Amino acid sequence: MTLRFLCCFLLFAPLATWAAPVRGIDSYARGDYEKAISSLRQEVENAALSDKDRARARTYLAASLYARGLMDEAREQLEELARRHPEQRVDSARFPPDFVALADLAQKTVETERLREQARAEEAEQRRLLAEQAQARDAERQRLLAEERARPAQASPSSSSAKAPSSFRFRPELVGFSDIGGVLVSGAEAGRPSLGLGAGVTLGVGGWEVGARFLPAPESRWGLSVEAGYAFGRGSLQPRVALRGTGVRGVGVGGGAVVGLRLTPVSRFTLLADVGAERFRIPEGAPYRALVVTASVGVGFNLF
């Protein structure tokens, strides 16, 4: 009797020492799993126990459920053990190998969940940082826009130069002309083309132009013409149309239409070319045609 008692004491003494003071562990050791489950369910929530003792209680609760064949509940308790007490390990010297393997599997499952949650948290933190950076960039952009709006408007140096030089112009001109009919220049047989040289001035605003030309000739038969016309476009080459009135001393007055071109290769100089048709009131017996066609070419210097 003494020998049997000694053997039982040596076998169960370490287990009893590790189990105390948690209720239910002794029931597990006796094989009374129902009672062990009932007691250990209360112990895992017992606030009076230390974390270490509650971890031991959950370990034995899982072992008791496993011994009763309740595998799913046993696995759930082992996963909860790994979550709440990740440092707790199931001792392979006290529990069956299959239960130890199930505990290792539960530990790996929880570790995978933990890594997944950590990855989600890191991703959420990254999104938060990116959103903060985007907000900071947007705030800086709004600040710069507000500063830009607050600055007084300043004319760009190029804005004045962008204005077309023909917006306002005052242009002296020198022209050579020819009239079919010999009205303006003597020294040619009456009714035949003649040549002459004249001077004039043009004032323009935008496309509109008005001008006057003095047409000197021998024998005091000088002429004076005035025009009002419009030059199309704003480039260096401008077609134009005009109405002209001309008076020639000792001959008469007339008027008609003119078409021509203005070419401005540089800002100051303009090349002129015109063709016009005018009808004159010629005194009876004068050796001149009433309808005169004129052509002129010349150059102008833009003072403004």
TrEMBL record:
Residues 152-166 have a biased composition (Low complexity). Pfam families: TPR_19. InterPro entries: TPR-like_helical_dom_sf (IPR011990). Residues 1-19 form the signal peptide. Residues 147-166 are annotated as: Disordered. It comes from the Bacteria. Keywords: Signal. SUPFAM superfamilies: TPR-like. This is Tetratricopeptide repeat protein. It comes from Melittangium boletus DSM 14713.
